[in-house]
Amino acid sequence: MTILDGNIVTVAMPAIQSDLGFSAPGLAWVVNAYLIPFGGLLLLVGRLGDLVGRKRMFVAGLVVFTVASVLCGVATSQGMLIAARAVQGVGGAMTAAVVLGMLVALFPEPREQAKAIAVFSAVGAAGGALGTFLGGALTQALNWHWIFLINLPIGIVAWIAALRVLAPDRGAGLGRGADYPGAALVTGALMLTVYAIVGAGERGLGATLVLGAVSVALFVAFTLRQARAARPLLRLRLFRSRLLTGANGVQILMVAAMFGFQYIGALYLQRVLGFSELMTGTAFLPAPVLIGVLMLGLSARTIGRFGPYRVLLAGLVLITAGMALLARVPADGSYVVDVLPALLLLSTGFAAAMPAVTGLAMSGALEEDAGLASGLFSTTQVVGGSLGLATLTTLAASRTDGLVDDGTALATATADGYRLAFTVGTGIALAGLVLAAGVLRPGRESASEPVKAEADSGADSEAGERVEMSG
């Protein structure tokens, strides 16, 4: 539900703009208002989840998110919708920041944990892919308000299930402190980073660089604070884990490519091929089906057999190949020939790569840091998605505008802009593949990496180690 809401508005944006009278720059804030608090608060609420109990944080987040969804659904003005989307982002952060830590605690046995992570990844990936379909279907069949109101029954069921099924956990206690000055620094830095990324196309390069410099300064101040604080919000030892740091870096690049594909792919179908909202959503429907089948049926078994490292590399190869196919989409293309093969490659690759990179990231954290590691992993997802969306859409728009100014037909110029974006997306995916191959290779231990983090990587990771060593 929370991931779905990150992109369910994509297809409904023209209807929202027409109904509420948004300007083109103002319309972007329907997405930005959700992403900025979502990405900015993940580390803080992840740590608070460790202190007050992850179940409490999760249940409270469900309530906040569901209530905010209803407010979005009944919004009658620009300000009300944007404010409600911001509250949605807060609730989304509260749930997303602790869910992986809860999974690790619920399923400590490595093989069962791999299955649980596969299910979690399948649900999240399906939510992201279904967002495009549901956004188109609900907008065309009813109206855009229902893309938010549909969260009410889902949220109520999830809230009841969480209260009944999840075991209570006490947490370490707020008495241990959450380093609130450090929390203010990192939350400000993350929010400013996401704000700088998602609004880069509107402000121009100079203003974006200034905002980036300020966010870097806040991150430096936060790091210095964590090195000296008695009870730091973020234990810097966390980054000594090659698995956790490397997997988060790979995820940023992988999600940047995939999120860019989802957004620009939908625009290509609508603006170049002339698809309606419902047709666009239906065109993306094979993705969640394929991802769900592969993640639930094969992912854990494949990782157990070959190890997460090999599965991750195979997935990244397929993602890179899918993006490369999209880099040749023509102005007179067709869905079956030019889009569907790439969609199938990308879905298969993501189904393989996402559970593998998730398992590697969480295996690099100690149990008491599970909530924080979960928040960090979710943060890199948001940053990667925002970075990919801002970079690729800005490149596509700039190329299209330049060609139109030179007299090129709009359809041809638009397709050329999207080809440039997909070409850059291919390079981003390839960079993720190179990083994974170089950093996450089994057996590449550094002297500074915690032994416990390596030991906690579980039987699945150890299987990959044994295969590599025997080779």
UniProtKB/TrEMBL annotation:
Query: Can the keyword Secreted be found in this entry's annotation?
Result: no
Read off the Pfam families from this record: MFS_1 (PF07690)
Q: Which GO terms describe its biological process?
A: response to antibiotic
Query: Listed GO molecular functions?
Result: transmembrane transporter activity
* Keyword GTP-binding attributed: no
Arranged from A to Z, the UniProt key words for this protein are:
Antibiotic resistance, Cell membrane, Membrane, Transmembrane, Transmembrane helix, Transport
User: What are the residue boundaries of the Major facilitator superfamily (MFS) profile domain, all occurrences included?
Assistant: 1-444
The record's listing under PROSITE patterns reads: MFS
Q: Which domain of life is it from?
A: Bacteria
Membrane topology term reads: Multi-pass membrane protein
For this UniProt entry, which segments traverse the membrane?
27-45, 57-76, 82-105, 117-138, 144-166, 178-198, 204-222, 243-266, 278-297, 309-327, 339-360, 372-397, 417-440
A GO term from the CC aspect: plasma membrane
UniProt name for this protein: MFS transporter
Subcellular localization: Cell membrane
Q: Where is this region: Disordered?
A: 445-471
Segments of skewed composition (Basic and acidic residues): 445-455
InterPro entries named in the record: MFS (IPR011701), MFS_dom (IPR020846), MFS_trans_sf (IPR036259)
